[in-house]
Amino acid sequence: MVQGRNVHDDSPGAPEGDVYEWYQRGVKLLRDGSPAAAAALLERAATAEPHSRSIREALARAQFNSRQYSDAAASFRQIVDANPAEDYAYFGLGLALWRTGDVEGAQEPLAIAVAMRPDERHYVSALKSVRATLRARREM
To answer: What is the rounded distance in angstroms from the CA atom of residue 95 to the CA atom of residue 73?
Structure first.
């Protein structure tokens, strides 16, 4: 949950408003197709509210969509570590690891996501693709 406390950040280039406003603007930037700008704003919000799952998830999505895959994996991992019941975070972690080239590492979080939500086609499809890639590499 985003707390929305007022954060007085007088550093150069600091965004106006409080954490909740940063979160809202970051989500809007992400939705409007500006993931890098969203990631920058959401990173500031995550620093101010490090335990906010909503901010961390939005940040991870923005990082992933702006091709900051290692950062996205770290953000998704923080969510999973804080709450192991977050199937979407396992899915995001798996995809981010896959995009960094860690196909082997992507398999476990994707398998966990599928075990938690076997009805979620995106999860199943990603896991099948990762396993097919691993099979193909072993057969080379």
So the answer is: 8
Q: Say what the pTM is.
A: 0.86
Report the C-alpha gap between 6 and 78 in whole angstroms.
24
Residue 128 Cα distances to 9, 131, 134, angstroms? 46, 5, 10
Amino acid 87: pLDDT: 98
Would you say 95 and 112 are in contact if contact means Cβ atoms under 8 Å apart?
A: no
Alpha-carbon distance of 55 to 26, in angstroms, equals: 9
| Low pLDDT (below 70) residues in the chain | 1-14
Residue 101, helix vs strand vs coil: coil
Which residues 6+ apart lie within 8 Å of 66 measured at CB?
Answer: 35, 36, 38, 39
In the chain the first and final C-alpha atoms are separated, in Å, by 47
Q: Quote the CA–CA distance of 15 and 24 in Å, as a whole number.
A: 12
User: How far apart are the C-alpha atoms of 46 and 28, rounded to whole Å?
Assistant: 16
